[in-house]
Amino acid sequence: MPPAVEQYRQQSKRPVSGTSHADTAKISEPASETNTSEESATAPWRALFFFTIKSNLPILISGTAFSIIAGASAPISAWIQGKIFESFSLLGAGQLTGDQLYNENRKYVLYFVALAGATWLVNTGEFACWMSFGELQAKSARDRLFHGLLKKEIEWYDMRKHGIGALLPRLQVQIREL
What is the spatial distance between Cα 137 and Cα 178, in angstroms, rounded to a whole number? Predict the structure, then answer.
């Protein structure tokens, strides 16, 4: 079991602030049929990466890089728009003519179109990387859960009081009685 998962489990057993000693005993007890109140522990942000394996890191790094680049496109766009509006201000003040305004803004419009195309590509890459990373995380979680269940002894499944594992033996007993 990864150390981060074990650390989270230990943190969730700590008493919640503002609870009394009697409440702390209820929180640390395993859930039973008599104890219907459930306390939810807040997971740390590191919990998002509990199922990350080394083969997922290139996609995680790529997604982070795409996110940073996509985030930089908004200030660059604002700068280009500022330059365009500045030239309109100069036109309004009479410091530029119509031809000068056209020549000045033509390059900024081309920059703006290039930025829009680059932003589209970067946002596509960002979305693809984060979707892939999320799917790989889910696959890793399913694999760990499946292999963990395979390692359990048969008696563990028979001892379950709820769920399919408990339902099947009861159905078998009822079928035998028929």
Answer: 46
The SS3 call for residue 3 is helix
Number of DSSP helices (H) and strands (E) in the chain, helices first: 6, 0
State pTM to two decimals: 0.58
- Give the span between the Cα atoms of 156 and 161, in whole angstroms: 10
pLDDT digits (tens, 9 = 90+) for 11-67: 555 444 444 444 444 444 444 444 444 556 788 878 777 888 888 899 999 999 999
The three state secondary structure string of 55-118 is: HHHHHHHHHHHHHHHHHHHHHHHHHHHHHHHHHHHHHHCCCCCHHHHHHHHHHHHHHHHHHHHH
Question: What are the structural domain ranges in the chain?
Answer: 60-151
From CA 67, how far away is CA 85, in angstroms rounded?
28
DSSP notation for 164-177: HHHHHHHHHHHHHH
With CA atoms as reference, report the closest residue to 80 among 54, 48, 55, 116: 116
DSSP notation for 36-56: ---PPPPPPGGGGGTT--GGG
